[in-house]
Amino acid sequence: MLERFTIGCGTSSNSSKLIHGGLRYLETGRFGLVKESLKDRKRLFELYPDLVEMVPFYLPVYDDSLRPWWMIRTGLGMYDLFSQQPQYHCRYINNKDFAEKFPGVKTAGLRRVYVYYDGKTNDLELTRRIAQDAFGSGCAVRENCQVVSVDGDDKVFRVLYRDSSGEHEVEAPLLINAAGPWIDEVNAKYCLPHNYRNNKVSGIHIVINRAVVPECMFLQTNNRRIFFMIPWDEGKTMIGTTERMENCTCDEVQVQEDDVNYLLDCANHYLREAVSQDDICHTFLGIRPLVMDKNDNTDATSMSRDYKIDIIRQGETKLIHVYGGKLTTCLSMAEKVSARVS
Ligand SMILES: Cc1cc2nc3c(=O)[nH]c(=O)nc-3n(C[C@H](O)[C@H](O)[C@H](O)COP(=O)(O)OP(=O)(O)OC[C@H]3O[C@@H](n4cnc5c(N)ncnc54)[C@H](O)[C@@H]3O)c2cc1C
Asked: Which among 68, 81, 145, 151 is placed 20 to 30 Å from 87, CA to CA?
């Protein structure tokens, strides 16, 4: 595995840090993705109990919420059915108990509050641990190396890379491109044939310098999106995320003031004491590589978070590109890739 910087430095340290089924994907009928994610959530929780913690998410429904309570209830029922983990089934709490637990959250117009469970992780640590496990199973992991060229013939790929000790060449009949949102740039740079294209959708999170909620919250916006408020280290709160289509290269994408203000507005719709730019102590940005069918003009929210494995055979060589996906589904994705290796 050749990584140009350090393992996890890309999208995998800038996610919402949830190991989740993706409750909102039920709305767009992505049942297969939700089922697979919930299966992987359970497996990651069992494999890395010190890094994946199941926590409650509070989901209040208000009079002005765009999705009514019965729709939320139906979605949560399906989530429970798919998860096959009865100990983490959703429940309902009364408004009075919610108001006592969340004194900083408005209760005017509150209809119902549901509690469901999902996993929370340290995405960077989890990614590094998985790489470490791969290393333990015999995978050579090289950080801080720059791929200089990819050549080859019908029998073998030749990859020339450079690190602090000089230039090295590796030869293999199989090459896997798992460059996340950089995948198209890698394809272009090394002239690798491919069948799909990537859409880059950036997402930011802001970290507020105080604890505005005691537990995780899943909230609806007034444009039919959703966002999270998640208790963060040292009494802070993480709020995210946004979706912005990007047309520049991945390394040029920057946090936009509009997105920061959007998140502040989303949070302030629910908070008694408003948060402002002055409360932000940290902002981070990641890029979702979303695979989309050609000529599809749907907006980023409804684009699939599913992944595609693209296989190019030439003579005795095989090139595998991994497009899209979620941190949560990394195990299933890896298994599907390895099944296609042999
Ligand atoms: C805002 C946001 C929130 C998200 N929240 C969640 C969530 O809560 N839960 C969840 O399951 N998923 C979430 N995701 C999705 C998840 O983060 C990604 O699916 C996952 O991190 C992608 O991992 P990856 O290894 O494919 O890509 P990356 O982690 O980006 O890794 C790609 C690596 O390729 C390297 N690279 C690039 N070019 C080269 C080159 N030429 N040579 C060598 N190396 C190269 C990069 O340095 C990088 O480290 C979120 C994504 C975003 C953007």
From this structure: 68
Handedness of CA 61, 64, 66, 68 (dihedral sign): positive
Residue 288 Cα to ligand 1 middle (Å): 7
In this structure, the number of other CB atoms found within 10 A of the CB of residue 77 comes to 13
Identify which of 125, 15, 102 has the alpha carbon closest to the alpha carbon of residue 56. Answer: 102
Q: How far is the CA of 247 from the centre of ligand 1 (A)?
A: 18
Best residue among 191, 225, 327, 329 to mutate for probing ligand 1's pocket (most ligand atoms within 8 Å of CB) is 327
CA-based angle 137:36:176, to the nearest 5? 45
Atom of ligand 1 nearest to the CA of 145: 43
